[in-house]
Amino acid sequence: MNDRLNTLLHKQDLAKADIVELLALSVPEDIEALRVRAHEVMVDNVGDAVYYRGLIELSNICALDCYYCGIRAGNSNIERYTLAKSDVIDAANWCADQGYGSIVLQAGERSDEGWINFVEQLIVDIKTSTVRPELPQGVGITLSLGEQSRATYARWRAAGAHRYLLRIESTNPQLFASIHPAGQKLTERQTCLKWLAETGFQVGTGVMIGIPGQTLEMLADDVLFFKTMDIDMIGMGPYLAHNDTPMGSWEQPLSKDEVLLLAYKMIAVVRLVLKDVNIAATTALQAIVKDGRERGLTYGANVTMPNLTPTEVRKNYQLYEGKPCMDEGRAECRGCLLGRIEGVGRHVAFNEWGDSKHYTKKD
Ligand code: 5AD
Ligand code: FES
User: Quick one: which atom of ligand 1 is closest to the CA of 320?
Assistant: First the structure.
């Protein structure tokens, strides 16, 4: 490794130009040095445990029309579903029984009162039914349910959810506008992130990597935005085209392998810059290569989300093409994922919420 790279990898406050330089690394030994340093920073700041969040894809009904997403309102090629409350409670209990300390409830975006109330009741019921001697306050609940009013966030927080994921997708106004209909505004999403912090959530955000038109400078701005917003958790993954969306026919300047490598470099750089946050190795990494997720863990990520959605409806929740584990059930994913994680020398922390150290330090 050259001296310049070594200095950069140990520099305290990376500037935009430094981040761009790291994201542009192309020599395999240099990328390996970045990976090793990101791992070291992770171990020093948050330890080397991997935390699970059992992912329950509640519903694919969505009021929005994001140009990239397979469950956008305009896609009439999928069957729409909402899980029954009993199925969600069953999944959450299975999760608690396995020692998965946390769940994520994710769905398309809806903000009608019926939905807000359904989610609120679900949170209350999950919290009470997942109490175990090892989990005295039930499973930790993360929500990933899109843009809502401040009052809705406050209701869901009061019901017992304590973390929320809302990806900004891109902080570049032109790029954001190119992948969303005119009614969806970057500024509104920024306001939602502020409301989430104000209502007491641990806040997660992130971007898609490899969006056509995205530059390394834009990604560097995204990383600095996470820092300025004092974000607690990061979930990022490669952008993957879905045929039944407007962006499905756009030209993708990067190959899948190039997008994957860039996603790993982003994970590593975010670890260097944000240090003590939780970073997810997302499912989309596994859509490109089989070991994509656990490789993500070796670049500084410390969270992953085993899928708990009932197998019958998994095929209807494909945000992108190539989503893994379509035919597997939760028990198969359990064994498979654990083996993969241990295969890269990591261990899973069971029966813990695994809160973001960045957040707990703020307290
Ligand atoms: N490729 C990759 N990620 C996608 N998402 C939605 N559609 C795609 C796609 N085609 C991501 C978005 C969203 C999250 C739930 O899934 O970043 O915030
Ligand atoms: Fe689902 Fe491997 S993680 S089958």
Answer: 10
**In which residue are the tokens 């990806």 written?**
167
Name the closest-CA residue to atom 10, ligand 1.
320
Distances (CA, A) of 70 to 166, 248, 306, 316, 318: 17, 9, 20, 9, 6
Name the residue among 106, 117, 10, 26 with its Cα closest to residue 59.
106
pLDDT tens for each residue of 147-200: 999 999 999 999 999 999 999 999 999 999 999 999 999 999 999 999 999 999
CA-closest residue to ligand 2 atom 3: 333
- Ligand at shortest distance from the CA of 311: 2
- Per-residue pLDDT of 316-335, as tens digits, reads 999 998 888 888 889 998 98
Q: Around Cβ 100, how many Cβ atoms within 10 Å? A: 28
Q: What pairing do the DSSP bridges indicate for beta strands 140-144 and 102-107?
A: parallel
Residues with CB under 6 A from ligand 2: 325, 328, 332-333, 336-337
Atom 14 (ligand 1) nearest CA: 167
For residues 58 and 161, give the distance between their C-alpha atoms in angstroms, rounded to a whole number. 15
